[in-house]
Design a protein that fits this description.
The chain is α/β, with parallel strands linked by helices. Helices cover about 35% and strands about 10% of the residues. A nine-stranded mixed beta sheet has the order 7-6-5-4-3-2-1-8-9. The longest helix has 17 residues. It starts with a strand and ends in a 14-residue tail after the last helix. It binds iron/sulfur cluster (SF4) and FE2/S2 (inorganic) cluster (FES). The site of iron/sulfur cluster (SF4) has 15 residues, from helix 12. Iron/sulfur cluster binds next to helix 12.
């Protein structure tokens, strides 16, 4: 379960995955409601809780929220930019029972990281926080968000994960949804970069076996088949938005016609079995070519939100798929991107709360 505690964030990343319409602070769930939701989640069978945002440290009551999650028996992972965390807060989070920290990294030096994050001084702060996290003894995952502007730095990014004492690095290429779609031309990797990243991940996995786990979310436009988004809709994951609406994925509200129930009005277990979660669960909703495809149990037809965004039909095969009627749309975007120059970040549209 992903708990988006707030949409507030000091960074302004041009690939922000939060919805286009952000939730104001006054509409955020309070700590007592989160505690109830965590108990309901544990009873429903949720094992892992990702405390996210926005920047979760923007909430002054993060420590109390974390404690209530730990009391509910959930494994807790804090997904953070690091900005807003201090030694005192990390100690308090440890005492609250926080199990794991996932720190995002936008670049390998201040020039690159602060350009992407839109936050001067962010890189230095992040490096300090990484040391504090290590000193506190938290298991650390580095979340490296990659795109055209920083993919050439991937070898250094992986090296930094080792230096910072991370156990895992998630090399996550930007998914071109929501706000990222506005910056698609600037962020879309070139084909050479996509291939280089695949090779570098393979090299690092072999060289760092037993020292660093390297997870990889490839740039999916360059793939022949889509990713199994959320492991299948309504299958294993759920997202609770800052105002309490519960969704099968973070972009689900881009699909028209779905109504998302709120934890204020229904128990989590009822919402899990409700209409929004059932809309694309299983295989009955599938059209051809997915309906009769051998891969349907592997990728579940890909991403519903991407099918909506590109093909205008959330039940269509993800247009990333080579067999999908909409693949031409992805190829056209790739050709346009390949032909475009750039790589200096000029003209990026930043995401500010
Ligand atoms: Fe996946 Fe559908 Fe493509 Fe088959 S046709 S690979 S199920 S997206
Ligand atoms: Fe919604 Fe993929 S982001 S299903």
């Amino acid at each position: 379960m992903l708990a988006e505690l707030t949409h507030r964030c000091p960074l302004a990343c041009p690939y922000c995955s939060n919805p286009l319409e952000l939730t104001a602070r006054e509409r955020e769930l309070d700590a007592a409601t989160w505690a109830r939701v965590f108990r309901e989640a544990a009873a429903l069978g949720v094992l892992q809780l990702h405390l996210s945002g926005g920047e979760p440290a923007s909430r002054r009551d993060l420590e109390g929220i974390t404690a209530s999650a730990a009391e509910a028996g959930l494994y807790t992972n804090l997904i953070t930019s690091g900005v807003g965390l201090t030694e005192r807060r990390l100690r308090a989070l440890e005492a609250a029972g926080l199990d794991h920290v996932q720190l995002s990294l936008q670049g390998v030096n201040p020039q690159s990281a602060d350009l992407i994050g839109g936050y001067a001084g962010g890189f230095e702060r992040k490096m300090e926080v990484a040391q504090l996290i290590a000193a506190q003894g938290f298991p650390l995952t580095l979340n490296a968000v990659m795109h055209r502007l920083n993919l050439d730095d991937l070898p250094r990014m992986i090296e930094m994960a080792v230096e910072l004492g991370a156990r895992r690095i998630e090399v996550a290429c930007v998914q071109m949804h929501g706000w990222a779609a506005r910056n698609r031309a600037a962020l879309m990797p070139t084909r050479a970069q996509a291939e280089g990243a695949k090779a570098e991940v393979a090299r690092a996995r072999a060289a760092l076996k037993g020292r660093l786990v390297v997870d990889f979310v490839p740039p999916d436009y360059h793939s022949d088949y889509p990713k199994a988004c959320m492991g299948g809709w309504g299958s294993t994951g759920l997202v609770v938005a800052p105002d309490g609406r519960v969704m099968p994925c973070h972009a689900a509200e881009t699909i028209p016609g779905l109504v998302f129930q709120n934890v204020a009005e229904a128990p989590l277990a009822d919402i899990w079995r409700g209409p929004a979660f059932s809309a694309f669960r299983g295989e009955d909703w599938m059209q051809e070519p997915c309906r009769s495809c051998d891969r349907r149990g592997l990728d579940f037809g890909g991403c519903r939100c991407q099918a909506m965004a590109l093909a205008g039909d959330p039940a269509a095969a993800d247009p990333v798929c080579r067999k999908a009627p909409g693949r031409g749309l992805v190829d056209a975007l790739l050709s346009a991107s390949e032909a475009s120059v750039g790589g200096d970040g000029a003209g990026l549209a930043y995401r500010r709360f």
